[in-house]
C-alpha cells in the first residue's frame, strides 16, 4: 500500500466520528518497501490539492521519512520537491503491519501490501 493511499483512508467504525482522531490512521509495526516507479510531474502536481499535507507530514515523521514542512509556492517548478514527493507518496509502500485509529483503537491490518478495511458487524 502506497503512502498516497494511506493519506485518503480514515476510520469508518460506527460512532468514531472525531475528525481529529479518525484520520490519519497511525502506523504500527510496519515494514516498508521502496518500489521504483516512473515519475510523472503533471500527475504529482494534480494530486497535490487532494493530499492532506499535515497528515502526510505527521505520518512521514512517524516513519522517519524526510518531508518539507510546507508545499512550495510553485511546486511545478520545484524538481527537488517533486522528486521527494514522488519517492514518499508513490514509491514508499507499506508491506506488512497495521494502522491504528486514535479515536476508537480499531486496528486495520496490512498484509502483503493490502489493507483490510473490513469491520466486525458491531462496528458497522
Ligand atoms: Zn476509529
Automatic annotation (TrEMBL):
The lineage of its organism: Eukaryota, Fungi, Fungi incertae sedis, Zoopagomycota, Kickxellomycotina. One of its GO terms (molecular function) is protein heterodimerization activity. It comes from Coemansia spiralis. InterPro entries: Trm112 (IPR039127), Trm112-like (IPR005651). This is Uncharacterized protein. CDD domains: Trm112-like (cd21089). One of its GO terms (biological process) is rRNA (guanine-N7)-methylation. Belongs to the TRM112 family.
Amino acid at each position: 500500500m502506497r503512502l498516497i493511499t494511506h493519506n485518503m483512508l480514515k476510520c469508518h467504525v460506527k460512532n468514531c466520528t472525531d475528525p481529529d482522531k479518525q484520520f490519519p490512521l497511525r502506523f504500527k509495526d510496519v515494514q516498508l518497501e521502496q518500489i521504483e516507479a516512473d515519475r510523472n510531474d503533471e500527475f504529482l502536481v494534480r494530486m497535490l490539492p487532494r493530499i492532506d499535507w499535515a497528515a502526510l507530514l505527521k505520518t512521514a515523521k512517524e516513519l522517519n521519512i524526510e518531508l518539507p514542512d510546507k508545499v512550495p509556492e510553485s511546486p511545478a517548478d520545484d524538481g527537488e520537491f517533486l522528486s521527494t514527493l514522488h519517492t514518499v507518496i508513490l514509491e514508499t509502500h507499506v508491506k506488512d503491519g497495521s494502522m491504528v485509529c486514535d479515536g476508537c483503537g480499531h486496528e486495520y491490518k496490512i498484509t502483503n501490501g493490502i489493507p483490510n478495511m473490513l469491520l466486525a458487524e458491531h462496528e458497522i
